[in-house]
Write a structure and sequence with these properties.
Elements lengths: L7 H136 L3 H15 L7
């Protein structure tokens, strides 16, 4: 039964060793352990503050990102609107220029047609006049083939050109 009932000397030495170990631990061990625990607690608290600050900065960055994205979208929409307006203006100007050029070309063509028509009419008149002279010449040749007819025609023409005054 000596295991269940320790001897008083053993108890004394056990208490003395326990007190000595407790004293040594209390003097040098526990302060180091509590210092390490406090240090670890401070590190965890600092990490939590840093994490909270990082979360706030991340939130601010996300807001900034959303704001920049919205601004970029507005600028893109503005650029697209300006490009669309410029395209419409260019198309309108091109259409107006083409219409003006078309009208100018049409006017020039009408003038050329009119000039060619006048030239053709003048040419036709010349040819008709030449044809008339040629026909008249042939008729006169046939009609005035003898000398007596020629003299009669000349007398009549001179009479018409220079009439005599019979009263004088």
């Amino acid at each position: 039964m000596s295991l269940l009932l320790p001897e008083p000397g053993l108890i004394f030495w056990m208490v003395l060793v326990f007190a000595l170990v407790f004293f040594i631990l209390a003097k040098w061990g526990f302060p180091v352990i509590t210092g390490m625990i406090d240090k670890r607690s401070a590190y965890i608290q600092q990490s939590l503050r840093d994490a909270e600050e990082a979360t706030q900065r991340l939130s601010a960055l996300e807001e900034e990102h959303q704001r920049m994205l919205e601004q970029t979208r507005r600028e893109q929409a503005q650029l697209l609107k300006e490009a669309s307006d410029a395209r419409a203006k260019m198309l309108s100007e091109a259409r107006d220029d083409a219409q003006a050029l078309s009208e100018q070309m049409l006017t020039r063509a009408r003038e050329e047609i009119s000039a060619e028509k006048e030239a053709a009419l003048a040419q036709a008149r010349r040819e008709i006049a030449l044809l008339g002279v040629s026909v008249a010449e042939k008729i006169l040749r046939d009609h005035l083939s003898d000398e007596e007819t020629q003299r009669a025609l000349l007398d009549r023409l001179s009479e018409e050109a220079f009439p005599h005054d019979e009263t004088s």
